[in-house]
Amino acid sequence: METYYSSYGVVLAVLIAGVGLVAVAFGAGALLAPHRPLPEKLLTYECGIDPVGEGWSQSQVRYYIFGFLFVIFDVESVFLFPWASVFERLGYAAVVEMGVFIGILALGLLYAWRKGVIRWA
């Protein structure tokens, strides 16, 4: 029982050492780094052009929806590769299950298309 708890002690020691190392690095950076905030340094940099207007701008939600749809279908397509590599050994039930899976993906794509999410206009 003594070795069981000593292994947790090693994990705790490594955790404390890691947190201490990060704290020392951040503290040293804050103490040693020069801090001279000049007005020129505080301006927003826009490729050499003087910034015009405020720094805040609205971005359209459709960009996030496109990214979200990409992630969904990209991650779901990753599930097809292992299935395809062992396709013959799984049998008919696996074909039916994958058909249901692809059908659900198709329904999601049809829903996004009907809602007009995929149109970029």
List keywords for this structure.
121 residues, mainly alpha
Describe this structure in words.
With 121 residues, the protein is mostly helical. The protein contains five helices and no strands. It is flat, with a radius of gyration of 27 Å.
Q: Please give the share of residues in helix.
A: 55-70%
Give the termini distance in whole angstroms.
67 Å
Strand content: under 5%
Count the DSSP helices.
5
Helix- and strand-based class? Answer: mainly alpha
Write the topology of this structure.
Elements lengths: L1 H31 L28 H18 L1 H6 L1 H4 L1 H23 L7
Outline of the structure:
Helices cover 68% and strands 0% of the residues.
